[in-house]
Amino acid sequence: MKARTILSDLRVAFIDDFSKYAGRMDPDLLRHTLISVARQSGTKFVFSMVDGSYRTEQVKKALTYLRDAGLSIPVIHTASNGIPLGAETNSKFVKYIMIDNALMLDFLGISDNTQEIDKAILTDTVPNLVDKGSIAEMMAGLEILKYMSPYERHDLYYWQDTNKGNAAEVDYVVAKSGHVVPVEVKSGVKGSMKSLYELLSKPQKDIPYAIRCSLENFGSFVSPIGKPISICPLYAISNIISKTLTSNPIA
Question: What residue ranges do the domains of the chain occupy?
């Protein structure tokens, strides 16, 4: 109950604090945009889905404010052709996650014990939560950031096939030991790997292996084209940044 109260107090404090920007930014726009970040977590951000009939440029400015304040984190599309990942980004394809899972659930109006929800996601005992996949994806992104160097601001990247009619998308792409490494997140022990396989099969991309984050134990398997895929449990995402998961997980 205490944690629940603190979360509600934080949400109200953030929203109340927006009034300080009234001379430069519409507080209602900031509030609507942050709520939309929570609602659209895990998907390409659509400006028109922000309540209030605001123009795209207005929402973009609000997103910049929220990012600079540390309340939202962009996950930027990268072509994934090589290092650095930020060299080939597409600003038309950006997802956003919030700074905390529990805070996102509070913004979505979920009043249950958020710590128990996170625990249930990690143990696959919350079958009726509609946003389970998005929350698992957000947990993974925040953990990836957590184990990066604290002395600089890092970006998160993902891959999506931008060709019209193709919905292929891989949740995250990281740079590891000079290689491009795709990271697919699943909220259970099963799930389609079609998008990851599609990315791995593109001949112009030098991707030696990939990582699947799920509720499975540590393990590995081989993609249809023979590239190794390492399995990393959601609770052990620090291994993605550390050298525990090597470039040859099958060996």
Answer: 2-241
